Amino acid sequence: MLVLLLLGGTGSASAHAVLRDSDPGDGAVLKSAPQHLTLTFSESVALLDDSFRVLDPDGRRLRVGEPGNGPDGADTARVTLPAGLEQGTYTVAWRVVSADSHPVSGAFTFSVGKATVSTAAALATGPTEDPVTKALHTIARYLAYLSVAVLIGTAAFVAVCRPPHVPLHEKLSRASWWALLAATLALLVLRAPYETGEGPLGAFDADAAGRALTGRPGIVLLARLALVLAAGAYLLRMARRRRRYGWTGAALAAGLAATWAAGEHASAGLQVPVAMTSSALHLLATAVWLGGLAALLAALHHAALSAQAVRRFSRVAFASVTVLVVTGVYQSWRGLGGWDALADTTYGRLLAIKLMAVVVLLAAAAVSRRWTALLTTPAVAEPSGGRSEERAVRTKVAAAVGGPSGPPASTSVPASPPESLSPPESPSASEPPGPDPSAEGGPDPAHRRALRRSVLTEVAVGAAVLAVTTLLTSTLPGRAEAEAATAAPAVVGASVTDVPFDVGTPGGRGTAQITIDPARVGDNSIEAVVYGPDGGISSVPELRISFTHPGQDIGPLDAGLTDRGGYWGNSFLNLPVAGTWEMKVTVRTSDVDQITETRAVTIH
Questions:
Q1: Residues 6 or more apart from 234 whose CB is under 8 A from it?
Q2: How many of the other CB atoms lie within 10 Å of CB of 314?
Q3: Distance (Å, rounded) from C-alpha 314 to C-alpha 160?
Q4: Among 53, 124, 383, 503, which residue's CB has the most CB atoms within a 10 Å radius?
Q5: Counting Cβ atoms within 10 Å, is residue 539 exposed (0-12), middle (13-18) or buried (19+)?
Q6: Which of 8, 222, 30 is nearest to 129 (CA)?
Q7: How far is CA 143 from the centre of its chain?
């Protein structure tokens, strides 16, 4: 929980929705004030009461209309602007909730008439992420993953393996059910402040809470809560009647898995029906394997298990691993989009960590397989020379915990070999002294302890895998990050160009540094400072700059620089089109000495 708290309090919000376009565009200079602001996203988005914050050139917040979807559908957001906007640069900060339940925010600027240089770089994005809310939300999501895995896995273990000590697993089921109920309620309470980026006390805002619970993520959580309550009633009924779990339990497990698929990355993007099915199967397979390991660990610690029960779980675990591999490969392809994203994106790096942890998990499963084979090896008595001696016959049983299964060895064994791992009624007289086998519930306490340790390792690594999965589901997928880099408006700042010159006379060398801000179409400010050969600011009698756009046959346009005491400048340089311009810089150092240099500058 401490690691999750530290990780949850860092970084910016990541979500699946990507801003594709805005009207007005980022950095646009308009001749007249617009009536609306419209944002277009890569998927449908839900809007908040405070989805748009618009600041005027003086930094004061404007009163705008109620946000809503644009005429093009649910993947757009629109707000009406007040009439009579004055000239200058306006800052727009926005925040919406993407279809996969995660909030996403950003900011951009546009200008009416002309840009206001003093405010063009000030982007007030509004609230992003409250670290306490984000940490609590991450912990609750992890607890939900862990508890649903134990709940479903324990039920599957009891239904398939039929262990003798059912009350022990009833306690494990009850504990995981209470944990899942608490995590679901916590996610419901934190939903509103998580969406708005406020602190946990934002949960007491009735309007925000009502809006959050009626949105798609809130409805998914309410459906999960209803299924959790139904699962609790079902567990209670099965415990009272001492009956095994059946198809009703399987349907409840599938319903719970579907709520995760409907509230995470699978619910948005490409191939949504296939992705949601894959996500639900992935969660169910994870629960049956890792949750079943927790149930197996409890059985190994407190109860005697039959070899048949271990073999059954081995087959179920192998099937679960197969489903995990197939669905995991698909989801990795869908989330990454390309091999480069594996190293170049946060999502890819987290996925690589998860894959390495899964490899460790499978290695631990291989160790469990070895100890399971030793535990399920029966002892066969055969006559030899008029006296009986016990000879261990190694039989190949199904794959061990979490590993693949194999066919029985072609070894002669009794028609009805002993199935129980409980101790024999009378140990052999030739057996060396040691701990009481009955205390361990098996013929070889050392093997049983070794198996318990390897299964414990699997459970611990599995819990770490779930932690990484929790972070993955709240991280922008690599495919969406690549799309964001392509579709998002370019962030443009001031253009700074150094132009060295040398007029060929003593002391006639230096550098002219030209700054164009914000280097966008429309009005720009331009400043030029001349540095002498010693690196200090130098005063020159004349400095001229002109701009030519060869592709559009525009120019030369004189920058109109004036000497402002230490530098040359002009606050209203108008460059009408975007593209690459030729900037000619003429520096005169004396009455007869001057030089002209040409550099290319890009205007967005």
A1: 248, 249, 252
A2: 26
A3: 11
A4: 53
A5: exposed
A6: 8
A7: 16
Q: Where are the beta strands (DSSP E) in 35-75?
A: 36-41, 45-55
Burial category of 570 from C-beta neighbours within 10 Å (exposed 0-12, middle 13-18, buried 19 and up): middle
Torsion angles phi and psi, residue 121, rounded to 5 = -95, 0
Residues in contact with 380: Cβ distance below 8 Å, sequence separation at least 6, in sequence order: 390, 391, 392, 393, 413, 414, 417
- Give the span between the Cα atoms of 476 and 504, in whole angstroms: 56
Cβ-proximal residues to 247 (8 Å cutoff; 6+ apart), any chain = none
Check residues 600 and 48 and name the one with the higher pLDDT.
Answer: 600
How far apart CA 77 and CA 96 sit, in angstroms, is 9
**Residue 54 pLDDT:** 87
The amino acid occupying position 319 is A
Q: How far is CA 313 from CA 289, 294, 303, 352, 470, in A?
A: 9, 12, 16, 28, 26
pLDDT tens per residue across span 366-395: 777 666 666 655 543 334 443 333 333 333
Average pLDDT over residues 441-457: 66
Q: What tens digit of pLDDT does each residue of 153-198 get?
A: 999 988 888 776 556 678 888 999 999 999 999 999 999 888 888 8
pLDDT at 276 over 70: yes
**Nearest of 220, 235, 146 to residue 183 by alpha carbon:** 146
Instruction: Retrieve residue 142's tokens.
Output: 């992890």
* Mean pLDDT confidence for 125-153: 83
Beta bridge mates, 600: 582
DSSP string, 195-218: HHT--GGGGG-HHHHHHHHHSHHH
